[in-house]
Each structure stands twice: as C-alpha cells, then as structure tokens.
Amino acid sequence: MEYFRPALTCDVIVFTIRDGRLQVLLVRRGRPPFRGRWAIPGGFVEKDEPLEAAARRELEEETGLRDVYLEQLYSFGDPGRDPRGHTVTVAHLALVNPARFEGEGARPSPVIRPGKRGTGNPEPGTENLLRAGDDAAALRWFPAHRPPPLAFDHNRVLAVALERLRNKLFYTTVGFEFLGREFTLPELQRVYEILLNRRQDKRNFRRRILSLGILKPLGRTRREGRHRPARLYAFRKPGWTFLRERALVT
Amino acid sequence: MEYFRPALTCDVIVFTIRDGRLQVLLVRRGRPPFRGRWAIPGGFVEKDEPLEAAARRELEEETGLRDVYLEQLYSFGDPGRDPRGHTVTVAHLALVNPARFEGEGARPSPVIRPGKRGTGNPEPGTENLLRAGDDAAALRWFPAHRPPPLAFDHNRVLAVALERLRNKLFYTTVGFEFLGREFTLPELQRVYEILLNRRQDKRNFRRRILSLGILKPLGRTRREGRHRPARLYAFRKPGWTFLRERALVT
DNA sequence: ACAAAAGTGTTGAGAGTACACCCATGC
DNA sequence: GCATGGGTGTACTCTCAACACTTTTGT
Fold first, then answer.
1. pLDDT for residue A170
2. Residue A210 CA to C10 C1' — how many Å?
3. Which of A5, A24, A198, A240 could form a disulfide with A144 if both were Cys (CB 3.0 to 4.6 A apart)?
4. Which residues in chain B have Cβ-Cβ distances shorter than 8 Å to A50?
5. What angle (nearest 5°) sits at the alpha carbon of residue B118, between those of residues B115 and B121?
C-alpha cells in the first residue's frame, strides 16, 4: 500500500500483589532511546502477528513470564511519544499471582539480571520464573503507585492501567486473577483491601462473595501459621465474570 | 527503524437513535477491496497524527460529521482481516444526536450520494449534514442490531462496539450523548428504553435521575404535539460521568 | 493457657420496585 | 370536551452497613 506507516509496538503492564501492595513489573532499557531508564516491557509487532500474540511474545522474551491473564488496555499514538519517530503502541494489562515466582519473590523487589537464554527449554517449575531478556539490562518490581520516571510516555500508560484496574474491580471479578486456582476468603479479602486501599468488614465481604454463587467450596483447608486454618475455595468459571447486578465491593 | 510495519487505520463506529431504534452509520466502499460492500468509516493514519485526530479526520472526510462525542474502543490486528496485508485498526466509538442532521433524517434511512467537496466552507447550520466523501459511493444509517454483511472484520468490530455501549450505559452517563444540550426527561427515558430494549417505570426513572443531582432544571418547557409540554433540563457537567455508587438504570 | 486469625447473625437505614391518578395542552 | 403524553406519592421488599463474640489451631 502506498501510505505512510507508523511503527507499531505492543506493551504489557504487569501487576501483581506483593509485600502487601500493588506492584508493577518494569525493565531497565539496555539500549537507546532512554538507555538505563525503566520502562514497561514490550516491543515491535511482527509481520502477520496478532496483537495479543505480540504482547505475549514480548512479555516472555523480556521477562520470562507466560500464561498470564492478559487483556488489551488502550492504544497510544501521540506524536513525540517516541523520539525515534511516530510509534503507536497497543498497551495490554496483565495480572499475575505472585506465588508463581516466589523463588525470586521471597526477596523484596530484587533486581534480576539477564540470564542465559536460547539455551534450550527452562527446567520444569521454573518456566515462569522471572529473568531479564536480551534487550533489558534488568527487571524489577516497583510499587505501582510510586513508579520511577519511565521511558517514553510510560508513566501515563501506567496511570491509565491503574485507572482501568480500579474500575474493573467494581463490576467484574478481575481481582481473582491475583490469586491461584485455590484460595481462601481471607486471602481474597486482602487482595481487595489492598487494591481499594480500604478495609472491608469480614462478615459483609464473605456474605457478598458467597451469595454471588461464583465460588465452589473445596471442603479442604489451608494451614498457615499458628491459628485456625482457612477453608479453600475455587472459582466456578474460568476467567473473570461481569457482574451486572450486585457489586463485589463498594 | 529496521522493523516490519503493519499498516495502521482508524475506524469510527457512529451510533445514533432514529426511528425509535439504535442505528449505525455505514459507508459503501467505492474501491477494492470489498468494493460495493458496506463498511465502518475510517482510513489510514497519517504521519505524526494522533489516533483520535485521525479518527475525526477520516470521519469528517467520509461522512461530513464533526464535533461528535468520540472515544477509543479497541484495536483489531488479526492477520487476514485485510486482504491487502497486515493492517491494524484502532476502532473508535462515536455517539451523535440525530437532531443534528434532521435535514436528511426526516427520510427513513436514506442513501446519501457523494456531494461536491473541497468547494469552500459549508454554509452555517449545514456543517454537520451528512454527505459521502470521495472514497465512499454512498452513506446510510442501518439498524445497529441487524447490519448487512460488512467489509473486513467490521461485523465483529460493530459487535464489540454494541457490547461496550451497552455496558457503559450502566455505570456512566454516556446515554446522554444521544441528546442535545437541552432535553426533557421523557426524551431521556426513551433513549434508555431503546438502548436497553426494556420499559422503565416513569416515576422510578425520574426519581433515580433527579436524585443523582447531575441535571439542572432550566425552568422552561418544550412544546411538542397536542399535550402538556415537558420541562427542559441540561446536564450539569460537560461530557459524561462515572457513576460508582447508584446506577442510572438496572 | 494463650496468641492469632478464621468463622458466624442480627438489626436498622436506605434504595429499588410496583403501582394509579391528576395535569396541561392542541384540536 | 376529549385525546395525548407529562407529571406526581406511597407502601413493601430487599440489599447494605454496622457491629462482637466463639472456634480452631500452634506453641
């Protein structure tokens, strides 16, 4: 075709809940522009590659993360957002359960240096461990509400992602994506308290969630610490659900 | 940059309410691919052009519509959606008040043929009248829920737009965008009844809307037909509002 | 036995829903 | 004066918010 074409990238804002707060995964750029600045992971879309596939590929290349919850967020195309020239990015939002990479997660916000890549498949159980890709000098979790100055317009992209996450909490069940397949009600409540930055009454919270009928009691419990074990539940449907009538939280 | 670049377009799904139902504005394509098929208006993004600006420019070029409510909807980039090759589109959603083009609107869903363009400014009062652009053989309103077979993946884009409009009705005041600056409560109620395809109780609807405190009574009335005139209201804030607590409709 | 977190019910206030009649105007 | 759509109030139900104690486990 005879038209001008801007460059096209897919970026992925990855949120998780660690150390009792919402955190975002950033990479340190290893090459210009913005070499040395922290940035949202992402990169150029390849020929005949669907947008979501590009986002997942770039995410895995730069961070090692795969099989995460992912949805398209918003597209940003203002001129001047990339000093190399007109570049449009299709930003995506990813939510992950921190238990999936607790190998690193035990340390508070560690810097992860580039690992060797292309040396065969990762060992079982480690395929979701974080590791910085070739383009990235390092990889780190940051508090989502106090990010460092980011490359490009990524501070704005992050702000849009936070806003979207917050809004979706009220009318969907996205909050569940921060948990594993099995979870307890106190865990779920903690997720919502952190995301909303507001305490929830235990009895009201339980009643609301359970009355929605979206949870399946597993009949088992999880022992944790020297106190009464909590009952385990699982989500009835895969993925998240729209809640048109009663809200999950208020 | 050394990377492959897909083509990038901006498309605009324009909804209005006419003849008591939700309608969508489509253009008949005047050139291949899909020559003669109906399609969502849109076209290629130009160098250093912001996405929303491209959407507005293409909308005006192809339909003559300007100064409409417009928001970004979703980006579509599946390979194969355009037979010319890898093309990504950033779809936008526009809502318009049908009173703005009642010159044509009086006739039910007329086909509008290309007018002369580039012949100076339009006369006052006609700048929003519909007129097909050069690329388009014709321009027409279609029932949004029964569209003809469309070019590209536009049937899917339309479906996504309908879904988004429907969802936003419940937690924002987007529905007001189908009305002019001044409107009556029965008019507003009719908009919601059409969009939801469901009758609303007059007294409950009024109480809900008025108790939100987002309307300003104008103290005037609008005479229409041989019955009691309805009071006029205006929206207190410009644009639409998020409704976190009480919903507008249920 | 004590510390720690899990689990459980009731009450009052306010919102949502259902429902029927009078009012202002044009013809 | 009659047809047409605009405008109003009340009673009931149900959801939401506030609130304190018992249970189960580890040490």
1. 85
2. 18
3. A24
4. 77-79
5. 95
